[in-house]
Specification:
455 residues; mainly alpha; two-stranded antiparallel sheet; 19 helices
């Protein structure tokens, strides 16, 4: 009999050690993990997700005109988006708008065209994308966990993590990066977890590739999430099918679903679709600057972007080393007093530690997935060639930390001294957000310090 790897043996041991019925709050998977999620069960969470998006958008829009002038990196991106909104331009006089890939600036230009060349017009597109991102967080959390209540907690933690509020109200590229990135996670996770036919599963898988390609057309660091898709997909493909006794294992079921997707579709979704989506985002740019949409032109543009980002010297007063971000409590005063909500950032780090323990014991898919996503989006900054890196680059990692908290919560006792643990975490996060809100919202004196100020 052929010997098995430790990976496969652990799958079998984890399943054999699992009792037929698991009490709520233990470290064992709940009933929602025992089968693929049906499309019908997604209806109610989808409606709730839309409501979350509307509430988030309303919160982002209140006072979004403040400050009335450019702040932080709006001075880079708003003029470029303004040039797009004005129609075809002459490259010789305006120069190629290539500080970053073009898609985010094209979307921002739509907001300027619709709402005017003013602070509201500069920022409205980012606020709308923030609302859609919140909707996507809710759907992704539900697809990952199969638990609507925990998905709503994850969505609220995303809304109140401070990063989403600040980055959805500034004319920069991160709101556009995140909306495509989180929706790519929705499509990818849906392809693995939904009880659907092969055609729809393959379609969702390819959609995830298109969306992550569009995210890369806003900021290049979307490639780290695509790398996670590669790793997870081929790891699941490697998992050998087990006998029926292991059919309830989530890892085994997702391996079965990835085999149903098939290698040709995996190649299409992980390779062809992202690249095509990314390249096509440059087509409108070439029309606007009156340049040919050709290989030579694309190569020249990318050389310019690479040189700009790898050689530009940043203001050292507003940069910080990547390893300092998780425990940072110093607000970014020039960027709406941005500082991560410590309930989410510190609680998320503790949750990641718990996820490591649970993944080692049970090889749970959700635990492994959030670990990889956080590691990819955070550790990339240890090797980035940029001359200066900024605290707001932590945004994608913080979004993953909020979901990591609920992944850990589902395996912990639901109540502590008769109080729901999820409610305690959520109330604490809201309290910190409310305390930070006056400064993040640029409220005028004396309202900016009505709940206290940083000294």
């Amino acid at each position: 009999m052929q010997s098995e790897s430790r990976f496969e043996q652990t799958i079998a041991v984890a399943h054999e050690a699992r009792p037929s019925s698991s009490p709520i709050g233990t470290s064992l998977p709940d009933a929602a993990e025992q089968k693929d999620i049906s499309l019908r069960s997604v209806r109610t969470p989808a409606i709730a997700a839309l409501l979350f998006g509307v509430v988030g958008l309303a919160l982002f829009l209140i006072g979004i005109r403040n400050p009335a002038s450019f702040f932080y990196d709006e001075g880079y991106f708003v003029p470029e988006a303004r040039a797009f909104a004005q129609g075809p331009i002459n490259q010789e006089t305006h120069g190629p708008p290539l500080a970053k890939p073009p898609l985010g600036k094209l979307i921002m230009a739509i907001g300027i065209k619709a709402a005017g060349d003013n602070p509201f017009g500069w920022r409205i597109a980012g606020a709308v994308c923030g609302g859609f991102t919140l909707t996507a967080v809710c759907l992704w959390s539900f697809l990952l966990l199969g638990d609507a209540r925990l998905a709503y907690v994850a969505t609220a933690l995303a809304l109140f993590n401070n990063f989403m509020y600040v980055m959805s109200r500034v004319g920069m590229m991160d709101a556009f990066l995140m909306v495509f990135l989180i929706w790519s996670l929705v499509a990818y996770t849906a392809a693995l977890t939904l009880d659907i036919g092969p055609r729809l599963r393959r379609f969702l898988f390819v959609c995830s590739g298109v969306l992550v390609g569009l995210a890369g057309a806003c900021k290049w660091n979307a490639i780290d999430t695509l790398a996670v898709f590669f790793l997870v997909s081929f790891a699941l493909l490697w998992v050998r099918p087990r006998p029926n006794a292991n059919a309830s294992s989530s890892l085994w079921r997702y391996a079965k679903n990835i085999r149903e997707i098939g290698i040709p579709t995996m190649f299409l979704g992980l390779g062809v679709a992202p690249i095509l989506a990314y390249i096509l985002a440059y087509w409108p740019l070439c029309l606007i600057i009156h340049r040919p949409f050709s290989v030579d032109e694309l190569v020249a543009m990318h050389k310019f972007i690479w040189k700009f980002n790898s050689t530009t010297i940043s203001n050292r007063a507003i940069t910080s080393p990547w390893y300092s971000w998780p425990l940072n409590l110093s607000p970014q005063r020039v960027l709406s007093y941005l500082v991560g909500n410590p309930v989410v950032t510190w609680g998320g780090l503790l949750a990641l530690g718990f996820c490591v323990r649970q993944f080692w014991k049970t090889l749970g898919f959700a635990e492994g997935f959030v670990l990889l996503l956080f590691a990819a989006n955070y550790l990339q900054w240890a090797v980035t060639p940029e001359k200066g890196i900024f605290y707001y680059y932590y945004y994608p990692s913080v979004m993953v930390l909020g979901v990591a908290i609920v992944v850990a919560l589902r395996s912990l006792p639901p109540r502590v001294f008769g109080v729901r643990l999820s409610l305690v975490v959520l109330v604490a996060a809201i309290a910190v957000f409310v305390w930070c809100y006056p400064r993040m919202a640029h409220l005028p004196t004396p309202w900016d310090c009505m709940l206290g100020c940083w000294t």
